[in-house]
Design goal:
Pfam families: Isochorismatase
Shape: globular
CATH architecture: 3-Layer(aba) Sandwich
Organism: Streptantibioticus silvisoli
Strand order of the largest sheet: 3-2-1-4-5-6
Number of domains: 1
Radius of gyration: 15 Å
CATH topology: Rossmann fold
Structural class: alpha/beta
GO molecular function: hydrolase activity
CATH superfamily: Isochorismatase-like
Helix content: 25-40%
InterPro entries: Isochorismatase-like_dom (IPR000868), Isochorismatase-like_hydrls (IPR050272), Isochorismatase-like_sf (IPR036380)
Strand content: 15-25%
Keywords: Hydrolase
CATH class: Alpha Beta
Length: about 190
Amino acid sequence: MTATTLDPRTALILVDLQKGIAGLPTAPLPADGVIANGARLAAAFRKADLPVVLVNVAGGAPGRTEQSRGAASHQPPADWADLVPELDQQPSDITVTKQQWGAFYGTGIDLELRRRGITQVVVAGIATSIGVESTARAAHEHGYHVTVATDAVTDLDAETHRVSVEKILPRLGETDTTDAIIALLG
């Protein structure tokens, strides 16, 4: 669990730190701690004049699954997809609304990053095994160097979080703590 370096053109991607998801029970880390670390990363990236990408989810892929997604008539609260205020969203931030797990498919995130010459991404958010892992996988497949802030991610299930952090994410890039990543920003 060691991030070795950050490219000069690195962007931060914060996944699904929104009111509806932040209000769900998370494990092993509480959502408020993940949000606090995400906010610290965002402030450090902005201070370094590096892009911050704030991703929210406002839908879901239409395919059938074995797990219920709730009643079709269930409407989430109006502010469900609103980003949490702790992120201190700035006009310079890139915002991406997705309709599926990962931030790349069906969105303009890759174009936004390439226009800015980005070669590496730091990924954080909720849920580790869903939005974070899907975004990290796609970033890796698109040729970006990937780093995941392990204390700025959590899941809805402690075991899937553990498997993602210990087994999957290290195969896609590097992992480290918020403090270590901020230190690499110099």
